[in-house]
Fold cyclic-guanylate-specific phosphodiesterase.
Amino acid sequence: MQNYRKKRKTTQKAQASAKVAQTRLQHLLTASPAVIYSCMPRPPYATTFVSDNLQVQMGYRPEDFIDTPDFWLNRVHPEDRDRILTELKALFQHDKLCYEYRFQHRDGHYCWMHDEQRLVRAADGQPLEIVGYWIDITERKQAEVALKQHQEFLQTILNRIPVMIAHFDPQGQLQWLNREAEQVLGWSLKEAKQIDILAACYPDPHDYQKALAFIQSAHAQWGDFRIRLRSGRRLETRWANVRLSDGSRIGIGKDVTERKAYEAQLERQVNYDTLTGLPNRNLLQDRLSHALARAHRTRRWIAVLGLDLDRFKLINDSLGHSIGDALLQVIATRLSACLREGDTAARLGGDEFVLVLEDLPEKAAVEPTIQRIFDTLEAPFQLENREFFISASIGVSFFPQDGKKARTLLNQADIALHQAKTQGGRGLQYYTPALSTETTRRLSLENSLRYALDRGELELHYQPQVSLESGRVTGVEALLRWRHPHRGWISPAQFIPLAEENGLIVPIGEWVLNTACAQAKTWRTTEGLPLTIAVNLSARQFLQANFIAQIDQILGQCDLAATALKLEITESLLMQDLKRAITTLHALKERGLQLAIDDFGTGYSSLNYLKRFPLDQLKIDRAFIRDITREPDDAAIAQAIIALAHSLKLEVMAEGVESEAQVAFLRTKFCHAIQGYYVSRPLPPEQLAHWVRENRCLVQVPDNGASHTPTLLLVDDDPLAIATVQRLLREEPYRLLTCHDALEGLDLLARYPVDVVMADQRMPKMEGTEFLRRAREIYPQTVRILLTHQSSKTTQVEAINQGAIFKFIDKPISEKNLKAALRVAFLFHDILRQRAKNG
């Protein structure tokens, strides 16, 4: 009995423990999200057990499953049912299975279930039971779906966004490319993973290392890279590198080739002149500043050259901007060719250029370059079947002499340039501090000139032109004068270049034509003076499109015959546009106007062009007349121009004639007319009329019928020597001319028909041999004798070699030797004259 009680007590205790355990298990199952179940191992897989938390998880009671064998299978989503029946077959092969499907909740909606099963077998291995558990994974599935949708959304965006995206692992190996990257690079993701994509895109080792370092950088950054595509084409790209938490990198890149080209274009527009391709003012300032820094360290010189084309605006205005632009392009090419590597040619605008020559050892080193520039611009320009001639003026400043800052040097080169332009073309001026004062003065003068015409400050004076054949006045030249109210008379050399620069020369030139023609008409009608009036034309006037109509209008208003007007035009003006010049000249000639080339010999026209101009007259420039009796070169040029005029059947006039010797020389060379202070200074119109009526100071015409007396010219600075010769020759049939100075002797040779000239070797201003050399070159038919104090072998040899000396006479002079030498000399002169007469 006692054992029974003990056993019963043990049983009760065990039952209590089991009940506690069961209660605990029930609580765990109720709290657990997993629903425990068991079912039969064959269709319809009827449920044999299900935990009580089924109702919490799915809304069903356990008996709903147990009482209806196919309850579970019928509530599986129809779209998943066949799949899970198929997958269940694997359970009987592997004894375990895990799969997911949609299951209908009691309230009718479907929820996702995770089902994990084990197959329980009997001792003989036959399937006995299936046990498992269900977990509601709807939230996870929804999250997965949302994630997948998000991933698809991102994938769509990444594949459609017009930028390249690449994913690299921490070692720099490619993991992924978006579609844009595949299309741009030319490799698919699969192909790109099979090669070293970085090496393919960056074949240069330096570029490869730079790209790899960029990808492996620990910091987010931007970088520009020039990559090679599969096609071999190069592409400018810009990449952003982003480091992820796992150490991998995302590269985001885009094609910036067009942007780079646009940026380069913008930079070029900012720094380069669009027309010529030369650096502009902005880049010039930068380059000059860097050049100055280098020169400061190396202690070398820098030259800044301001260059301006002479009369370019005239070409641009009269022939059109297309020709002007084309001309500037050719000039830019020529200027660049004149420079060394490292020098800079820049265009500031219009026809203004600046050249920077650096690394010069000394100031003089700039001179060869300047000469090359002048020479290259003098060559003719061929544009649109036209030939152009143009020149330039240059102003120069130096570092460190004239300044140490770019702006200072540029300003001073510009000041020097303005001064160079006053030289009338092809001017060269180096900067000096005095030029700054001159520039201020010029600006003030230019401002006054703008109002001079309206205020009546401009006047015309007239200089007579005289025929050497008749000795009478045949015409006058109208010369512009400016009477400033405060500064008095201002030289034309000062204000006419200013007027040409700023365009005022056009209205001023029209006023000159009107005033001169009106004055000519007045002289003809009221004074009875049929004078031809000559007017100088500026290039801008001549090349105006309406110039011919303007001439017609002025002649019509003044009622003046066209034959009474002579237009004087410079060579350089005609050569600017030959075709147009020839057309205009013929139109003027058809109207009856007289045409003359002014300052002939100072330009660069050729005989080929000269014969095509319908001219009436050539005017020898005063520069060749000034020393015509003293400098053989000037005499030769003047004689050549006179001969040229005769061969072309043109009149020839010498301007700037100031002495009787010049008149005599020009007459012997058959110059037709003269103009200059020897005849008269330019006069106001009322004074000129009075002067002509009084017939004052006209050139005397020689009597060509007078007999010639053998003439000897003695030049000696010793009065006793001259007196001795006069005494010794007082019985001889010679006309004796004497002077104490070699230059005076050259003038006497021009004034008189000298047969024999005798000069002392030792004269203070010019030695006898040099005097006789000039005499021989200007008057080759004269016979020349040299007086020497002691017979010098060296002097004799030099003189003989030069062909300057016919005989020597030693001092003191012997009467016998002198008379014998002169008899032979005059006889020899007669022989030379006879030979010349016989041809």
